[in-house]
Amino acid sequence: MPIVQHVNQNQEQNLLGLKQKIRKLSSALKNTKLTNTRLRKRLSFSISNSQSQLKNKSTEVQTFVQMQLYHRKRTSWTPSEKRLALSFYYKSPSNYKFMLD
User: Are 60 and 98 in contact (CB under 8 A)?
Assistant: First the structure.
């Protein structure tokens, strides 16, 4: 009988440890989701803010910033993005002056 009692105590200790681990992981998951939500809200605000600042810039600058913000893997480049990349390629020594306009 003492062996069975020892096994039951070990199982209870394991069960308590696992429950504690579940509580820790669920709270960590909750915190991560909350942080993710906050960061998404901040990102959407910063993107809309940057778009409003780009309205008075040239189309090349707007295209360049949109390429940096929105382009994802496995999406094709738009014709304006391709033209911009080719113009960078051909005007490489004077890119800085080109982007200032």
Answer: yes
pLDDT of 37-61, one tens digit each? 998 888 877 777 777 778 888 888 8
Q: What is the pTM of this model?
A: 0.43
Place of tokens 């990102």: 43
Listed by start position, the domains of the chain span 1-55, 57-101
| Nearest in space to 64 (alpha carbons), one of 85, 43, 50 | 85
How far apart CA 66 and CA 60 sit, in angstroms, is: 10
Nearest alpha-carbon partner for 69 in 81, 58, 57, 56: 81
